[in-house]
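Hi V.,

Quick status before I head out on leave. The structure for the redesign project is tokenized and pasted below; the design run finished overnight.
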């Protein structure tokens, strides 16, 4: 996800890239222990299988040529064509693709066809989560924000695990394409949040939901249907967003402006027509303005109208426009500054397109900056989750 603490503002956020003590008693907390914390009906929901005992599978290295695990180096020749399991001790150092993580659990090396392999950490969900919270939130943020984020991140990861267990060798990655994961961390507030919410997830009709979240919604909620995909699992009340303005509306961080060469942006959209399977992108010959053409039930743009010089109008999904505008295209210079959200308008100014918008990320579900404001105002993590995931069941 687009983490709150991976952006660039005046509170030391890092550039974009979407925990111990500590409380873990007796080493790894097994998935079975996670299940024990759930209610009987939650443990065996009619529509979902129980959690795999190996728990969350985090891909921490993609297409690796070698990996160093506790001073032992593995490469494809050692690996052969079958997956290899590597047992590790708690707090083991793993170096892959130039990144170092300290991790616990076990490591699976999965060979790929291109003479590389994927490095996948299997770790219990409760032990996984502190490293997510440390990557997603600022360390100085409110403990209640951490608790709300812990439930959202747990729901997101477990939902993906159940969806992907028979389809893929990993559930999540360790970066913004799913949720950040820093490995074992010693951030006390993260561990306390995970412990306080141990086993609690968000459900709809007893099924654990993919509890999407983003750094800032910009004031108005997006729906998963508009901003993620039209999958049936996204057409549920908790992922339709809340009515009314969010607490983040009062924050300066909520708004952004940038300029793009109108010609290069047009060429970038053209180039994305095939890769994104949006043929109309190829037909755009100029960009004069970009304005909302349809809004969702909360007032946020769902689609954008791209108006060309000769008044021809192309209507596209707002999220598709943002993704295309942020895509690196080999024949063009990479965008110097990415569009931070799809909640935007644009108008021509000379040869440039002036773009202004609200929010950071897709705007679905929990808004990290908004949650921090709500926590500061004294709201409980349960109330924060009830606001961002309307009518979701919050249970253990
Ligand atoms: Zn917000």
């Amino acid at each position: 996800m687009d983490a709150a603490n991976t952006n660039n503002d005046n509170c030391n956020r890092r550039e974009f890239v979407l925990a111990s003590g500590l409380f873990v008693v007796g080493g790894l907390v097994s998935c079975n222990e996670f299940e024990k914390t759930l209610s009987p009906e939650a443990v065996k929901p009619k529509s979902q299988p129980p959690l795999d005992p190996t728990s969350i599978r985090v891909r921490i290295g993609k297409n690796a040529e070698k990996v160093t695990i506790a001073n032992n180096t593995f490469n494809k020749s050692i690996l052969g064509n079958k997956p290899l399991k590597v047992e590790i001790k708690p707090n083991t150092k793993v170096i892959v693709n130039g990144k170092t993580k300290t991790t616990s659990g076990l490591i699976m090396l999965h060979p790929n066809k291109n003479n590389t392999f994927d490095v996948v950490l299997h770790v219990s969900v409760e032990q996984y989560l502190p490293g997510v919270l440390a990557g997603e939130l600022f360390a100085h943020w409110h403990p209640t924000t951490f608790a709300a984020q812990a439930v959202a991140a747990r729901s997101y990861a477990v939902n993906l695990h159940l969806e992907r267990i028979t389809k893929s060798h990993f559930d999540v990655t360790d970066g913004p394409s799913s949720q950040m994961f820093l490995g074992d961390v010693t951030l006390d507030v993260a561990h306390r949040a995970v412990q306080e919410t141990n086993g609690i997830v968000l459900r709809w009709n007893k099924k654990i939901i993919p509890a999407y979240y983003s750094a800032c919604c910009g004031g108005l909620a997006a729906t998963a249907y508009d901003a993620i995909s039209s999958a049936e699992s996204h057409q549920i009340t908790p992922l339709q967003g809340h009515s009314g303005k969010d607490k983040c509306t009062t924050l300066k961080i909520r708004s952004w402006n940038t300029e793009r060469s109108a010609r290069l942006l047009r060429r970038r959209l053209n180039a994305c027509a095939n890769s994104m399977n949006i043929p109309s992108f190829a037909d755009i010959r100029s960009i004069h303005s970009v304005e909302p053409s349809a809004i969702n039930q909360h007032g946020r743009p769902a689609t954008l109208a791209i108006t060309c010089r000769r008044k021809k109008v192309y209507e596209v999904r707002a999220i598709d426009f943002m993704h295309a505008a942020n895509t690196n295209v080999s024949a063009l210079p990479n965008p110097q500054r990415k569009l931070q959200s799809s909640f935007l308008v644009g108008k021509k100014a000379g040869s440039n397109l002036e773009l202004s918008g609200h929010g950071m990320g897709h705007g679905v579900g929990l808004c990290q900056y908004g949650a921090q404001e709500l926590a500061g105002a004294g709201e409980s993590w349960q109330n924060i989750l009830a606001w961002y995931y309307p009518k979701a069941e919050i249970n253990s």
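Above is the designed sequence. Residues 143-164 form the longest helix (22 residues).

G. will cover questions while I'm gone.

Best,
W.
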